[in-house]
Amino acid sequence: MEKIKLPYNEEAERGVLGALFLDPENIFKISHILEEEDFYLTPHRIIYGTILEIFGEGKHFDIITVKNRLQEKGLLEQAGGEVLISSLIDNIPILKNIEEYAEIIVDKAKVRKLMAVAERILSEGSKDTPSKQLIGIVEKDLFEVAIGRNKEALKLLKDGIVEVVSSIEERRDFYLRNKTTQGINSPFPELNRVIPAFQPGELIIVAARPSIGKTSFALSMALDIALKGNVVSIFSLEMPFDQIALRLLCMEREIDVKSAREGSLNESEYEEIVKAANSLEKLKIYVDDSASLTVADLRAKLQKLKMDNDGRLDLVLVDYLQLMHEKKDKRDMGNRALEVSQISRGLKILAKDLNVPFIVLSQLNRSIEQRKNARPVLSDLRESGSIEQDADIVMFLHRQDIKKGEPVVRQQNASTSKMEKIPVDLIVAKNRNGPIDDFKILFYKHCTKFMPMGPDTW
Predict the structure, then answer these.
(1) Cα–Cα distance between 390 and 388 in angstroms, integer?
(2) 109-116 average pLDDT score
């Protein structure tokens, strides 16, 4: 009987390794989908495993460091020697295609595993294994191939209890020392009463109709959280970097945004802008204003950011969900609801994997404008019910002065229209680990900043 040839793609394997050596930052794009065992050729498997090992230690890799590590471990010859490793960058692959190369490798690896399952069926069948038992074996093997690296064994409760109790003890000690809950606090005392702190791995959705102030609310949160010494990452798919920077400068010193944009600031206002700039320069706020973004792009950028900050990343802000996109199967073309569902689920998984709270802005359905009562509810989340399911917390911003999308003339503050304060309802519509509630906060129109509503502010 002729020996069956196992499928693999040498060019794709060389392409991935070459792309990694030419631009090591490509590792952030593929490390979560490509495993060492997916490579068929032994030298390639050893080289990629060594790259993952160095990367896992938080160190940067290149051809020299990989060769050195292989030499230290006595694996250089098994990896093809210096000649093979150096040749990986001779035929330069198209760097932007590294994810496609990785997918080819993973697909070939899955086919090989399926062939191994088929071989086991023949082997067990020749032993007169009962059909019921054989089906059970095949189902288990096929399931493991299907879920790949995401498989996790069931855990016995008692095995995790000690860890949970230890976590509770750690939070209790933190509270006793600091008189506040461990996690990321918002700048709004009323919100902190309902949600004591945003926790690592949580997906927080903030939704509203256009022009209500979603971006301003998120930036107000981001600025306050960064001022407390936290590392914050902002992904803005709609607003460019310079506009975000301008808003943050004006928020920090409560300077009129319009005057700053026009250049009509007086001397004292300009001095305040300079002070704000000096203050913001010290903060760990990272901004990405790419107009196109997938969950995979987000993962790669955040993994690198976390690595560059010695493992620290305290909050991620995405503005906004419906502007993101995913690579779609041809069968799913045009199914926007399915795509948004994939993005929503991907963001929740990413928040959990990175152990960081994600605040993600979202639009509401236009149908809300046709209702007599325009107060938003969970079913108003646009394009996908899975947003509600995936989110740990859902908050809505709602303004009583806007009905059916048409602005109503607002009462001006007694002092001056430039310092106009607009009351906004902040509605906690879903809170997986606590109560729901709603209360008012204030939008300071001149500096586009949200602040708490207190007895002295309204």
Answers:
(1) 6
(2) 87
